[in-house]
Design brief:
The complex is a heterodimer of chains A (about 300) and B (about 280).
Chain A (H helix, E strand, L loop, with lengths): L1 E14 L5 E14 L3 E5 L6 H8 L7 E6 L2 E2 L3 H4 L2 E4 L11 H11 L4 H14 L15 H12 L6 E5 L7 H16 L3 E5 L3 H7 L2 E6 L2 E7 H4 L4 E9 L3 H6 L6 E5 L2 E6 L2 H12 L5 E9 L2 H14 L1
Parallel strand pairs in A: 3-8, 3-9, 6-7, 7-8
Antiparallel strand pairs in A: 1-2, 1-4, 4-5, 9-10, 11-13, 11-14, 12-13
Helix pairs in contact in A: 3-4, 4-5
Chain B lengths: L20 H17 L2 H22 L5 H34 L3 H4 L6 H33 L7 H24 L4 H16 L1 H10 L5 H11 L9 H6 L5 H28 L4
The chains are: A alpha/beta (about 300), B mainly alpha (about 280).
Chain lengths: ~300, ~280
């Protein structure tokens, strides 16, 4: 069974005050997410990521198409019992404390009192908020609200969790902690479906990704399937590169940039670098500082796809 | 944060049995009650109402032979007016605020239907009103006790009907707040409240106005708008006129049917609303 199945999901919003016309924000989206994987939905602002999540969560209704979560239709209470959701820029009842909010949400899931209190403690500790358990939410910073948002999404021990921009508002330490948490979720067998602007996080965490642009699916698949994993260049940093040495390896590298005593050389492939290496360092002419094989990143791929879409 | 060292899995995907419908409505109602009682506006209103009940003592003191009547009159009026203000001002914000602030995004993906949520909000505010009316009622009875008046249960009949009136008004406010902004909901609910008190006058308008169109409009309004006069026995109670149990029964049935229809309409509208 697929964790999420989306077929032709479409959403139009009316725009304009008087003569209303329709604006298509999601166009016939087809997507499948397998159980147990971390799935990342990426795209520029206005691509339709949050709309997709809102449709799946039943906050807005589709103009066309259909979706199933854990094999059940949207709005099915049995399905909702097994999922968690972190909204984008979450905002919760500011008159409640963190502990009260988790307790209230636990009630809606039918958790017994003892389990609710244990679960609240456990989750607040998990997101580093133990000391803020009795603080009213109106006193929370953005990062604290985000952490609580992640905790509330896990209150029912979900099988599938939807996270909309989980790293938003978090400092580098918080982002690292949430990355670890997402990995831990997968290790516990939980499926994670998340949207993010931070492509390095997506690349680091996801098993599969989908790229949305202007409401349309650009592509979806495993990271190794959509990113060109072949070597793009070899970046080499050396010290003591004399003009004479530079002229001797001139045919091997394609770009040279000098920065103080260091020179940054870009070789098109590994054989070119291997050919130049003995000349560079032989007889102590130059000192090798670093060698970095460069492959395409998700960010490179994303920009290429989105820019190609913009030119069309 | 201790994400890796924790031995207990944070999410096992284990199924938990959901809470029943009534329980879910109850949880939302209790949370709504908590929301309203933690709102400073409510305390200001109740304090102001108690001051107004208290001030009736001063007015009563300068009214020769009428002091007890003035206290009862003003006391019941304060309960009704401040109850109305609480019902409209808190009622309109209950749903609209949840949409504006997007707190609903955290709730609706949980295993709770939109109707359960809306009913919970309604009953939560009704609970708040009940507690407030009880506080104001105690205030009025304490004042009468200090004036050495015997306990008069008839006042409770007037207050009970005021409560029904407010419960109906909350249902009106909730209906408007499911499809429009807080400000417009307040204006519309206020209009319905005033027009509901003029309901009988609307019906009589056709006999005094010579127009083909206006009487049809007023007749439709008469049948559509709730008749709040049905709940107003304050003058009769203060004058010592009897208020029959049958009258209370009819008013209760009228309120129950009206509230049920309004809540069904509210749920129907709210079910279809896109939360952008």
């Amino acid at each position: 069974m697929r964790a999420v199945q989306i077929r032709g999901l479409t959403k139009d919003y009316p725009v304009g005050s008087f003569l209303q016309r329709k604006k298509r924000v999601l166009d016939a989206l087809d997507l499948e997410v397998d159980e147990g994987e971390i799935f990342g939905l990426i795209g520029p602002n206005g691509a339709g990521k949050t709309t997709t999540l809102k449709l799946l969560m039943g906050l807005v209704f589709p103009s066309g198409g259909e979706a199933r979560i854990l094999g059940r239709p949207l709005h099915d209470p049995e399905m909702k019992q097994q999922i968690g959701y972190l909204p984008e820029h979450p905002y919760f009842y500011d008159y409640l404390t963190g502990g009260e909010l988790l307790n209230y949400f636990g009630q809606l899931f039918g958790l017994p009192r003892k389990e609710r209190s244990q679960r609240s403690r456990e989750l607040l500790e998990k997101v580093g908020m133990t000391e803020a358990a009795d603080v009213p939410l109106r006193k929370y910073s953005k990062g604290m609200t985000q952490r609580l948002g992640i905790a509330q999404a896990l209150v029912n021990r979900p099988r599938l969790v939807f996270l909309d921009e989980p790293m938003s508002g978090l400092d580098p330490l918080g982002r690292r902690e949430i990355s670890l948490l997402i990995r831990e979720l997968r290790e516990s067998g939980v499926t994670v479906f998340f949207c993010s602007h931070i492509l390095s996080d997506v690349e680091q965490l996801c098993d599969r990704v989908a790229i949305l642009n202007r409401g349309k699916l650009v592509e979806a698949g495993g990271l190794s399937e959509i990113i060109d994993v072949s070597l793009r260049e070899v970046e080499v940093v050396v010290e003591g590169l004399s003009p004479d040495l530079e002229s001797r390896i001139a045919g091997s590298f394609r770009e040279l940039r000098r920065q103080g005593p260091r020179s940054h050389l870009s070789f098109p492939d590994m054989p070119s670098f291997e050919k130049a290496l003995p000349v560079l360092i032989g007889g102590g002419r130059a000192r090798l500082v670093s060698v970095n094989p460069v492959k395409e990143t998700l960010e490179d791929h994303f920009f290429r796809e989105v820019n190609a879409g913009a030119r069309e | 944060m201790n994400a890796v060292a924790e031995s207990r899995p944070i999410a096992t995907g284990s199924r938990v049995e959901g809470a029943g419908t009534l329980r879910k409505i109850g949880y939302v109602a209790l949370n709504t009650y908590r929301e309203t009682v933690r709102d400073k506006v409510l305390y200001n209103l109740v304090l102001f109402a108690l001051l107004m009940i208290g001030s009736s003592y001063v007015l009563g003191a300068i009214s020769v032979y009428q002091e007890i009547k003035i206290i009862k009159d003003l006391g019941l009026a304060a309960i009704s007016i401040f109850g109305m203000v609480i019902a409209i001002f808190i009622g309109i914000g209950l749903v609209a605020k949840e949409i504006d602030k997007r707190t609903l995004y955290g709730i609706l993906p949980k295993p709770i239907s939109r109707s359960q949520f809306l009913l919970g909000k309604y009953f939560g505010l009704c609970l708040t009103l009940l507690v407030n009316l009880m506080v104001m009622t105690v205030g009025l009875y304490v004042l009468l006790f200090l004036m050495k008046q015997p306990f008069e249960p008839a006042l409770l009949k007037a207050i009970f009907l005021t409560y029904l009136e407010l419960a109906l008004l909350v249902a009106v406010a909730i209906l408007f707040s499911t499809f429009t902004s807080s400000i417009l909901s307040g204006l519309f609910a206020g209009f319905v409240y005033v027009a509901g008190y003029l309901s009988n006058d609307l019906k009589n308008l056709e006999s005094v106005v010579e127009s083909a169109f206006l009487p049809q409009v007023t007749r439709v309004l008469y049948y559509v708008l709730p008749n709040f006069k049905n709940f107003d026995v304050k003058a009769a109670v203060v004058a010592g006129d009897p208020v029959l149990w049958s009258q209370l029964g009819w008013a209760t049935a009228y309120a129950a049917i009206y509230i049920a229809l309004l809540l069904v309409a509210s749920c129907w509208i709210f079910q279809k609303r896109n939360l952008k």
